[in-house]
UniProtKB/TrEMBL annotation:
The keyword Coiled coil does not apply. Keywords: Membrane, Transmembrane, Transmembrane helix. InterPro entries: Cyt_c_oxase-like_su1_sf (IPR036927). This is Cytochrome C and Quinol oxidase polypeptide I. It comes from Pseudomonas migulae. The keyword Transmembrane applies.
């Protein structure tokens, strides 16, 4: 395994969201108040699951974590997700006025996902990555 710093950050964030998501799940189960179940589901799925996948895919293909597009993808996601989930929590607690914020933040998350798709299509198995892994292999043999 390599030591890709961006992947390490994704893993740390994923673990943090996992802790928050499960704590919310346990709290919902214990209190019987499931009003925040959509927040719990998306903390776990956009946070724990998707961030762990970003980290694992970045470990397997470091080229998708490098450069400006990857940095923009990272920051759009990491601003969009907490803002969206924070605003959704407020919305579910009765603050209807935060709806536009949920909309803007979810579009930000959506754009980040499109950038991620672009990175996957344009950088995985490109000639450069094949050449650099071939160079690594020839050094090892
Ligand atoms: C100890 C851990 C967990 C507890 C106690 C817990 C508890 C709960 C509870 C009480 C609900 C609400 C059910 C309802 O009102 O319909 C729920 C929903 C949900 N949870 Fe968890 N959860 C846990 C972990 C997770 C994890 C790790 C994930 C995802 C990776 C997850 C994904 C979901 C999803 C997607 C829903 C919504 C399901 C639906 O559409 O009804 N949960 N959970
Ligand atoms: C910007 C990103 C996303 C937005 C804006 C979004 C929005 C929504 C909305 C509006 C619902 C219906 C909620 C309801 O009827 O109460 C929903 C449900 C659901 N979404 Fe998402 N979603 C996003 C990303 C994801 C991702 C990435 C996953 C899985 C990896 C996911 C899994 C689910 C599941 C399992 C449900 C059913 C449980 C629930 O109602 O909370 N969502 N989502």
């Amino acid at each position: 395994m390599n030591h890709n710093p961006r992947s390490r950050t994704w893993f740390r964030l994923a673990a943090l969201y996992f802790a928050i998501g499960v704590a919310l799940g346990v709290t919902m189960g214990a209190s019987g108040d499931h009003s925040l179940f959509a927040v719990h589901a998306h903390v776990n799925l956009l946070g724990w699951v998707s961030m762990a996948l970003f980290g694992i895919i970045g470990t397997a293909h470091p080229s998708i974590t490098e450069g400006r597009v990857a940095a923009v993808q990272f920051w759009m996601y990491n601003v969009g997700v907490p803002v969206m989930l924070g605003a959704l929590t407020l919305r579910l607690k009765g603050f209807a006025s935060v709806e536009p914020l949920i909309a803007v933040a979810s579009v930000l998350v959506g754009c980040s996902v499109l950038l991620f798709a672009w990175l996957v299509f344009s950088r995985i198995s490109t000639t450069t990555e094949r050449l650099s892994s071939a160079a690594r292999e020839s050094r090892l043999s």
